[in-house]
Amino acid sequence: MTLKDKIDNICINMTTLHGYASIEDYQQYMIDELKGYSHAIVVGIKIPDNIIDNLESAQGELDYQDSYNRINTKLNQITSELENLIKNEGYSAKSVKASYIIPDGKLYGELSHKMIANLAGLGWIGKSCLLITPEYGPRLRWATLLTDYDLKTENNPVKSQCNNCRLCVEKCPSQALNDVEFRPEDSRSVRYDAYKCSEYFDKLEKMNRPRLCGLCVKVCPWGKKSN
Ligand code: B12
Question: pLDDT at position 225, please?
Answer without folding.
Answer: 77
